[in-house]
Amino acid sequence: MELEGGMWLYTDRTGLGKNGYPVHSSIYKNLITNLPTQAMEFPNFPFPSDLRGKFIPWQKVQDYLFAYADHFNLRKHVHLNTDVASVKRITTKPVSSGDAHQSPNRPQWLVRTTALQGGGSKEKVFDAVLVCSGHHSVPHYPDIPGQESFSGIQLHSHDYRHPEPYTDKRVLVIGAYASAFDIMKDVYSHASEVIITLTELDVLGLGEQYKKGLLPHNVRTTPFPQAINGSVVTFTDGDTLEPDVIIFCTGYEYSFPFLDASCDVTVSEGKRIQPLFKHMIHSRYHTLMFIDMVYTPIEFSIAYLQVPFAFKILDGSLALPSEEEMNQETEADYRDRMAS
Ligand SMILES: Cc1cc2nc3c(=O)[nH]c(=O)nc-3n(C[C@H](O)[C@H](O)[C@H](O)COP(=O)(O)OP(=O)(O)OC[C@H]3O[C@@H](n4cnc5c(N)ncnc54)[C@H](O)[C@@H]3O)c2cc1C
Questions:
Q1: CATH fold of 147-248, please?
Q2: What is its EC number (predicted)?
């Protein structure tokens, strides 16, 4: 990346960026935030007052993040155009009694970085690593038999940029959450028809909205696909459709290809990072933490709250329970969430 901004650095490109690395951003050209500014801002840095209470185009979020970086003089600390290629745990020095900073729970990390614009790789040892690599870049696809046989155009919402290529096309949107709703709103005035697939968990109530006539005239809902065979999609109610385009709005996976096996981090089915206490602290290696890896709409506020917590753990002013206690609490929390 050439600038700070992460997800909010819009690019027309999909696939690989100019630097040959996968494009990180999933933002599309006409994107308007799905939260008002008060719900998005860092508590210590409000959006400009004329944007208060508004849902804003991505450009304004980018301006806000640049202004934040300037206000807190952060740019000098950021190494742009630098890929973190690997993070390896390195054995800590022998434990000297009473020194919490030397315990096996506080290993150091060997980090290898690659300069994207030449300059080769470098290695450096760090006392702690905070993983802040985002979680809206690696597409998740549902398991629909025959998906690869689809003869039309198929893409993931990560690669959706403009509505124009879908003019007069019949567009099947798979998924019924935020991206599906947003992309439907962007594409319906160009497309001949937009069909949104629902599962039992219709969080936004799109099925009800359709029944009540609240969706645009050329938008309808349908059950989830059961199979794809060439041009034909068959749904769970037996109905079939021949769409020109399928857009998978089926979410993203956690992915940390740079974490070496020595980090002992697993991601099950792209959905659960383990072993994380309070969704952020490695329960065995407390110097490895994950910031903003929770699925919540208020992402900037979460980072704002998690970082001071992380620093308290790192400076030793906040003691953690034992690894076993942390894992037990995490499992109980996980079971509760799965049951609800
Ligand atoms: C379509 C869409 C719409 C959204 N709309 C909203 C919204 O309206 N409001 C809202 O609050 N949130 C929204 N979000 C969520 C958005 O992801 C967060 O607002 C925010 O960008 C999260 O910040 P982050 O820094 O955690 O991650 P990101 O913004 O994703 O930044 C992660 C950074 O890590 C870098 N990185 C990753 N891997 C490496 C590596 N190996 N080496 C070096 N750097 C690396 C990336 O290049 C990137 O710069 C939306 C997300 C999507 C996909």
A1: FAD/NAD(P)-binding domain (3.50.50)
A2: 1.-.-.-
